[in-house]
Amino acid sequence: MPRDNRLMPLQPGTALGPEGRPLEEKRRYPRVSLDTEVWLGQDGIFARLDKPFGNLSATGACLHIRGLYSVGSVMNVKFCLPDDPESIMSTVVVRNSLAGQGVGVEFLDLSSRTKDRIRFFVAGVRT
Q: What domains are defined for the chain?
C-alpha cells in the first residue's frame, strides 16, 4: 500500500510511533482532560493539588503531582465534575509514577453509578 505523505490533523494527546504515525489507542475507556479542584489524601490528611487531572476516565486518572509516589501506594482523591453538585471520592492505587510529570492512578471503589457519571461526562466532552 503506498504511503500517504499528506499531513493529517491529530487529536490532542495522540501518541506517535517511530514512523510518525498515530499509535492505536489501547485503553478500554476514553480519557479527557479535566480542570477541576482535586484533593489528595493519605492517612486522613487531604491537600489541594495545584495542578489538577492530566486526564480522567471511568477507571482512573493521571494526576499532576510534583512528588514521586511509589507504584502500589494507596491514596484517596476527591473531586467534582463540572455542572455536577455531588462530589466524587475514591480510594486509588498508583499504577505508574513519573517524577515531575505525575502519577497514573486506578480507582478502586467507585460505584457503578459514579462510573456512569464519569463515562457520561467523558462522552460529552469528546463529542
A: 38-126 (2.40.10.220)
